[in-house]
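Priority: medium. Attachment 1 of 2:
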């Protein structure tokens, strides 16, 4: 079976996307979709795979979203912006405003400029944890503050192992958690963050829900409602004036188009 995909980057967080009508996607077992996602992400490396289809309402879409290891992905802020790029540029939808149904809830996507998209995410929630600042920004994140201003240069094996241990910590079973390390500098409106993501099992260039979690931490600690979150792959702007309608703005760009031979 041949499957054409677009490889799109959201601040360095990369995803294969393909459109498949709902009537077609329903004919394919989910395990077969999962297998295709793993094959393509391995052949043309990406952090995840999105099968996009139309929803029942006009201007509304839904996704079947997998991490690159084939595990289900509930939500990803960077992936939603990549969806916005795909709808605008590949589906040629000029509406400039779309709804996306995710496991974490309905997300609104807006075209905000050239290759720039704004996303209204699902409500944020803080939970108690003995391990640090723990919250749900669509998926769970444990936020660990660091004093290392050169954080991105020190993503070594020790930090990776520590992150992996926390990701599988007893407290977060059965699904585990993402782990986001953040540095709060002298400028309270600008922070650095990097996320160790479930399903990827490594640090990623960017993580939308991780940037959101770091900004949530900054809001809780320093009262800043709008934060620029620098990640290794780029900068995202988080507006948390309303935690029931948190906003993320950032880039999405096309990396390439691929015709993939997959077995189901």
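Attachment 2 of 2:
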């Amino acid at each position: 079976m041949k499957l054409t995909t677009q490889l799109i980057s959201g601040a360095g967080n990369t995803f294969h996307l393909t459109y498949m009508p709902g009537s077609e996607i329903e004919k394919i077992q989910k395990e077969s979709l999962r297998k295709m996602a793993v094959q393509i992400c391995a052949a043309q490396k990406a952090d995840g795979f999105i099968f996009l289809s139309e929803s029942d309402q006009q201007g509304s879409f839904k996704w079947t979203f997998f991490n690159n290891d084939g595990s289900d992905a509930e939500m990803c802020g960077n992936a939603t912006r990549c969806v916005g790029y795909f709808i605008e540029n590949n589906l040629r939808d000029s509406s400039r405003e779309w709804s996306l149904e995710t496991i974490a809830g309905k997300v609104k996507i807006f075209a905000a400029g050239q290759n720039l998209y704004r996303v209204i995410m699902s409500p944020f929630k803080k939970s108690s944890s003995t391990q640090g600042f723990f919250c749900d920004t669509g998926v769970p994140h444990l936020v660990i503050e660091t004093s290392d201003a050169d954080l991105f240069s020190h993503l070594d094996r020790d930090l990776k192992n520590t992150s992996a241990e926390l990701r599988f910590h007893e407290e977060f079973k059965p699904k585990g958690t993402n782990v986001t390390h953040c540095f709060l500098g002298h400028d309270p409106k600008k922070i650095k963050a990097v996320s160790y993501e479930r399903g990827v099992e490594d640090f990623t260039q960017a993580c939308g829900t991780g940037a959101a979690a770091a900004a949530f931490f900054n809001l809780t600690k320093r009262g800043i409602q709008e934060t620029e979150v620098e990640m290794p792959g780029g900068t995202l702007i988080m507006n948390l004036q309303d935690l029931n309608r948190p906003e993320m703005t950032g880039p999405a760009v096309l990396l390439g188009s691929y015709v993939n031979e997959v077995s189901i």
